[in-house]
Amino acid sequence: MDGFRAAPASLDRGSHKRRRREKLASTAATAMQNLSFRLGSIPVRLHLSFFLTAALMNMGLLDRDIVRLLAWLVIVLASVLAHELGHATAGLLFGLQPAIELHGMGGTTSWSASHRTSHVQRIIISLAGPCTGLLLGGLVFALGSRFSADFALGQWIVGSLVFVNVIWGALNLLPMLPLDGGNVLHSVLDIVTHGRGARPAHIVSLVVSVASLGAAFWMGSLWCGLLAAFFASSNWQWLSQHRGTASGG
Hints:
Elements (H helix, E strand, L loop, with lengths): L8 H25 E6 L2 E6 H10 L8 H28 L4 E6 L2 E6 L7 H29 L4 H20 L8 H14 L4 H22 L2 H20 L8
Parallel strand pairs: 2-3
Antiparallel strand pairs: 1-2, 3-4
């Protein structure tokens, strides 16, 4: 105890209160950026960046129609969440424990690493997301047009729901990692090559992403171009890092 003197109790209490306030402030800041909830047994984390990206994708509504902008945000949220729930539900059927995260790049469904799945099961899980969107878009088109024929905002909502679910769902089936179509390609190539499908899957994905970048430039679609450039970069980086391996697995 030589050279040590206990701090006054008042200082201890003050330090404790300060740490508590800092912890509460940190928790509040995190809560403002992320919203966590559960859909049944599936945990979902929603990032603020998801809404920022969704708004930027339809920037024309920012200064033109706030009601349609809010409707657009709800449409994108519901559609992407339905897509990810398609993945998650298929995973549950195969004994996986899914978790959904909605972020600035869209949505991701992840799994606990304790349970292995077959190539066929992974293909089914990958296809379940876009198929859910295609089914939802088809139902909205078939039923929504009957109730929105004389309602301009209703027509726009139906059209936006069909666009997000059908067009985005179809694009998601492109054979390009990390899209669902790329994951299906990866699994199919793993079957054909007996587990050595990673490298050819990334090569095909790189070619498709470069072609998509050219198509986006031709169409004048900035958002699609940015996504294609990001996918091209990520596939090129993977190939560079696994250049010396036979399978890249």
